[in-house]
Design a protein that fits this description.
11 helices; single chain; UDP-N-acetylmuramoyl-L-alanine:D-glutamate ligase; alpha/beta; Rossmann fold; six-stranded parallel β-sheet
Length: 249
């Protein structure tokens, strides 16, 4: 195990909110590097089903049910699953303390390989899968993850500068992200997940994070036929490329 991970995490008290597949992988990773873990979920033990047995076998503290967000201010880091609403008061409080993190955020933080990200209201899974296969068939070492595939946190220590990371990124994963991929693509923007984001402006704001933190060394590919994504070109800090089914661009 890379000493960088151990230096950053050994002895840290970490609460992991939401016990889905990606956070289970993260729990295994953080346990391996010496963090003290508390797994938390609004579901009860019986509702977690077989996943409960796996969590108990890891020997970590579990806080399940209605009080799963209690005492978060006592932790050094709180890692939140993409599906958990960030507007919950307990999470907003921890966010103001600068202690919120995500599995995708850690991939960005530790990856030595360049990262490319794809998002959109529709078509992002198909596009990510196709681009991943194209890169692999071209002989380019590529790990595909994010909203699809294997949680990349388990691979991160083995990836070097010669590798490439391709992520499908949902609005939930992009929300609050403080880094952007070297290369980004947005397929389209349509009303989606407004039960969580509440407004179209907030939803679009989450999507913007895929290019918001880029530099002039980076690039973004936008759908020229979609007026929302076309307008994003004026905000991009890196190079902008368009694609269109309606006209030559």
């Amino acid at each position: 195990m890379d000493t960088e991970f151990q230096r950053d995490w050994a002895g840290k008290r970490v609460a992991v909110i939401g016990l889905g597949i990606s956070n289970l992988a993260l729990i295994r990773f953080l346990k391996k590097v010496g963090a003290t873990l508390s797994g938390r979920d609004c579901k009860t033990g019986p509702e977690l089903g077989e996943r409960l047995d796996e969590l108990q076998s890891l020997g970590i503290e579990l806080v399940l049910g209605p009080d799963y967000l209690a005492g978060l201010e006592d932790f050094d880091v709180v890692v939140v699953s993409p599906g958990v609403p960030k507007r919950l008061p307990e999470l907003q409080h921890v966010g103001r303390l600068g202690r919120l993190e995500s599995e995708i955020g850690l991939v960005f933080r530790y990856s030595r390989a360049p990262i490319y990200g794809i998002t959109g209201s529709s078509g992002k899974t198909t596009t990510t899968s196709l681009v991943g296969e194209m890169l692999k068939k071209s002989g380019i070492s590529t790990s595909v993850g994010g909203n699809i595939g294997t949680p990349l946190i388990l691979e991160i220590e083995h990836l070097g500068p010669e590798d490439h990371v391709l992520l499908e990124l949902s609005s939930f994963q992009l929300e609050g992200l403080q880094q952007s991929p070297h290369g980004a693509l947005i397929t389209n923007i349509r009303p989606n997940h407004l039960d969580v984001h509440h407004t179209m402006e907030a939803y679009i704001g989450a999507k913007r994070n895929i290019y918001q933190h880029q530099t002039h060394h980076d690039f973004v590919v936008l759908n020229y036929d979609d007026p929302v994504t076309r307008a994003m070109a004026g905000e991009a800090k890196g190079r902008v490329f368009f694609f269109s089914l309606a006209s030559k661009v």
